[in-house]
């Protein structure tokens, strides 16, 4: 089991599986990957970089799982 690492500083806009797993506080990268397509969104495949998850998509998935509507910029302003 590979434990995800929490990056120092701000979370990046695009995340590798390891970073995305830490962002959503999964126990391991393997657990995160098993939940992709059900709880978490499918990644975007970027040529030369591989699979990447967009931070906003992960935030929306977490909000939906909690039964909350994701924050909209209009709600914040």
| Gyration radius from CA atoms, angstroms | 13 Å
What is the β-strand count?
3
List the helices and strands in order: EHHEEHH
Helix content: 25-40%
Coarse shape: globular
Q: Which band does the percent of strand residues land in?
A: 5-15%
**Low-confidence segments, ≥5 residues, pLDDT <50?**
none
User: How many structurally independent domains?
Assistant: 1
Biggest pleated-sheet summary:
3 strands, antiparallel
Strand order of the largest sheet: 1-3-2
User: What is the first-to-last residue Cα distance?
Assistant: 42 Å
Classification by helices and strands: alpha+beta
Tell me the number of helical segments per DSSP (H or I, 4 or more residues long): 4
Overall pLDDT level: 88
SSE order and pairing:
Blueprint: E1 14-15, H1 17-23, H2 29-35, E2 44-46, E3 50-54, H3 55-65, H4 73-76
Antiparallel strand pairs: 1-3, 2-3
In short:
The protein has helices spanning 17-23, 29-35, 55-65, 73-76; strands spanning 14-15, 44-46, 50-54.
Describe the structure.
The chain has 77 residues and is an alpha+beta fold. It has one domain (14-67). It contains 4 helices and 3 strands. It has a 3-stranded antiparallel beta sheet. Strand 2 (44-46) and strand 3 form a beta hairpin. It starts with 13 loop residues before the first strand and ends with a helix.
Please tag this protein with its features:
single chain, 77 residues, alpha+beta, 3-stranded antiparallel sheet, 4 helices, 3 strands, globular
